[in-house]
Structure to design on (434 residues):
């Protein structure tokens, strides 16, 4: 979806497919008092069947006092049609209020502009009597907002042409055993993958788990599970702790935890649900951007670590319990909803973090909140295994939205195109241009 601000005025052919149509409104039309007639006009507007005169009638009607309830009702009814029963779309109440506010603000502005857009696809709809637009896709359920501090209007363009589409990432990783043997996990059958001393490595329903068997406890050996770009994976450690690995990530861990601690090492991004054991704290070690080591210590909790080397900071976000994070020079305790940022300058703390946004990748979504295009495209690069580059000076505007990680690259890029992000593609090369 595209939301952008446009200044000025220009004329275009009223019904050119795929083009923006801008009209000045004179507001010298007769207000229709019949609610049913207004509802019919609203439906015609959504189907791009309204004449310019009918659009003027809608604008004038909804600009009059006393008609706000009907406008909210029509927006709500339209959004309900695209509210999926599996919970894939969330936040309709918030977007309802945002849409309503934008419509009223635009109606009351001195320079009123209306954009009449043809459907790109019947699964898309726009709802606006005055250029405030929300887009929903019923199958992939995403919305995307580009905010600026001016009048909000809408723009739609044809889909980005890609000759051969690139599918989204999948569940796959490579397991490296203590003796150096490697196992590609997506092609391995369910069941026992390996026996290392008294530790059995199992694949169960697409994830691996480590179980102790009878016998003498040998010295633990270390295994590594690593994902490449375009892959993610889940595993269960011998203590019952669960780990989700994002794309281009890895975890190194002992087949069995001995001694007085449970220690693992990660690269990239991982989400942990740590099994409680007061006698053995769980420690996660990772490299930070200053070249040193960062460490998270917990007893039993849920948290996310983002330690990609191409990100400006390493981020540890706490969802449940408490954690201690430290580096060579400082230490910080976290409470739920807080995030620690490790940078060359030390550890800083952010409060009131939207944790659902941080772990959205684990639940199958991209969620952006005022994210610049460079940060956004780093996630695209890892998930779709593409080479992203930038040509020229790119806008630093922030983008906010939610997109399913199950959509192919062409659909994701189409959403970006609707947000005035210009893209060139060739195979697995994606170039962002001004």
């Amino acid at each position: 979806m595209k939301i952008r601000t446009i200044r000025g005025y220009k004329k275009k052919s009223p019904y050119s497919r795929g083009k923006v149509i801008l009209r000045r409104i004179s507001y010298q039309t007769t207000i229709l008092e019949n609610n049913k007639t207004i509802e019919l006009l609203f439906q015609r507007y959504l189907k791009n069947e309204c004449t310019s005169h009918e659009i003027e009638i809608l604008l004038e009607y909804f600009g009059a006092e006393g008609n706000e309830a009907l406008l909210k009702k029509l927006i709500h009814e339209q959004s309900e049609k695209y509210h999926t029963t599996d919970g894939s779309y969330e936040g309709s109440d918030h977007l309802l209020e945002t849409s309503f506010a934008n419509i009223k603000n635009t109606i009351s502005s001195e320079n009123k502009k209306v954009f009449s857009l043809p459907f790109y696809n019947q699964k898309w709809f726009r709802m606006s009597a005055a250029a405030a637009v929300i887009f929903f896709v019923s199958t992939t359920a995403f919305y995307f907002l580009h905010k600026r501090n001016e009048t909000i209007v809408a723009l739609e363009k044809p889909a980005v042409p890609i000759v051969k589409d690139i599918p989204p990432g999948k569940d796959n990783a490579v397991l490296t055993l203590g003796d150096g043997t490697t196992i590609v996990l997506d092609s391995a059958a369910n069941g026992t993958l390996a026996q290392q001393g008294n530790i059995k490595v199992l694949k169960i329903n697409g994830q691996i788990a480590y179980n102790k068997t009878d016998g003498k406890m040998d010295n633990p050996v270390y295994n590594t599970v690593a994902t490449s770009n375009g892959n993610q994976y889940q595993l269960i450690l011998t203590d019952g702790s669960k780990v989700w690995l994002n794309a281009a990530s890895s975890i190194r861990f002992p087949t069995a935890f001995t001694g007085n601690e449970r220690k693992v090492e990660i690269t990239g991004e991982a989400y942990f649900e740590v099994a409680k054991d007061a006698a053995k704290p769980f420690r996660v070690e990772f490299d930070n951007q200053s070249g040193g080591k960062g460490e998270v210590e917990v007893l039993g909790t849920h948290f996310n670590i983002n330690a990609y080397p191409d990100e400006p900071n390493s981020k540890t976000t706490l969802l449940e319990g408490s954690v201690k994070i430290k580096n060579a020079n400082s230490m910080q305790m976290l409470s739920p909803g807080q995030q620690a940022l490790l940078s060359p300058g030390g550890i800083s703390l952010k409060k009131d973090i939207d944790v659902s946004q941080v772990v959205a990748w684990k639940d199958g979504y991209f969620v952006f909140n005022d994210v610049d295009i460079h940060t956004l495209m780093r996630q695209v690069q890892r998930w779709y295994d593409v080479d992203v580059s930038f040509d020229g000076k790119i806008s630093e505007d922030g983008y906010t939205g939610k997109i399913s990680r199950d959509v192919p690259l062409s659909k994701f890029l189409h959403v970006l195109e609707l947000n005035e992000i210009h893209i060139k593609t060739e195979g697995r090369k994606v170039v962002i241009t001004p």
